[in-house]
Amino acid sequence: MLQDPLFIIVAIACLAVAGILLVGIGGFARGGEFNRKHANRVMRYRIAAQAVAILLILVFVAFRRMGG
Questions:
Q1: pLDDT tens track for 54-63
Q2: How crowded is residue 45: how many other Cβ atoms within 10 Å of its Cβ?
Q3: How confident is the model at residue 68 (pLDDT cuts 50, 70, 90)?
Q4: pTM (predicted TM-score)
Q5: What is the rounded CA–CA span in Å between residue 68 and residue 61?
Q6: What is the SS3 string spanning 25-68?
Q7: Could you give the count of Cα atoms lying within 13 Å of 59 in the half-sphere of its Cβ?
């Protein structure tokens, strides 16, 4: 499975979602100017990245079921 390029792309997408989430949580915890300016934007990026990751997971599962 680790040699499957689609699996690697899915894993990178999931790590990107986790990274964006950690930046958002860190901004909320720290507060201040960064949080005021960028909190909503960071969470919108997380939602978009999460949607892409879910779509890639569904594509991966569909290809695996078809035997690809």
A1: 999 999 999 9
A2: 17
A3: low
A4: 0.84
A5: 10
A6: HHHHHHCHHHHHHHHHHHHHHHHHHHHHHHHHHHHHHHHHHHCC
A7: 14
